[in-house]
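Please review this one.

:::
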Amino acid sequence: MNNLQFEALLNETLSPQLIKDYCPNGLQVEGRSEIKKIITGVTASKALIEQAIEHNADALLVHHGYFWKGESEAIRGMKGDRIRQLIKHDINLLAYHLPLDIHPQLGNNAQLAKRLGIEVEGGLEGHPQSVAMYGSLADAMTGEALAQRIADVLKRPPLHIAPELKDKLIKKVGWCTGGGQDYIELAAAQGMDAFISGEISERTTYSARELNIHYFSAGHHATERYGVKALGEWLAKDHGFDVTFIDIDNPV
């Protein structure tokens, strides 16, 4: 498929025009015109680019790409090195940030919920483009039990901040993959028993304790592996692309 047609297919599926984001979504670095072989991954790091080169990929499709708001526009240093390698090897770079977080089937939030056994009920912000979600577990469980489930699924133990009432059971859950820790107050206000995200801030500990809500920091990278993986699997199954997901280890 032509690279611009490929971008149009992804845009039609993920609808980036419906949400304000911190970076451009879609084709960020243009490479060869024909796309057959695709490497998917969380972040367009040097290590992932090297894997794309090794696999002779036509395109690299990621969740975290380049050109974030607030960063320098200069293409130099680390960013310059990465972009030079993409251009040298004629590899297209496509990135989808918030649109990939919120997609109701392929998104990071939906995929994490599926793995953790959370039934999705809606968006915490009350609209279809909500970045944070809420839902319910089939059965109420302790904070320790949910922490173990997260560890089993993500292959890494989460940081669990228990509320002042430590024996509070968890049935209603809010979550936001990646850096969504500041949705904890909205989750508590809407009666959630727990909130799950990727990162934690110093203030989050006090919020969890004082708002009487369990908080689980499960890793930014760890919680956002599954959206781009699902997107790649859909491209392979429904559109016949040769797709390989590569997970570059990241402890954060």
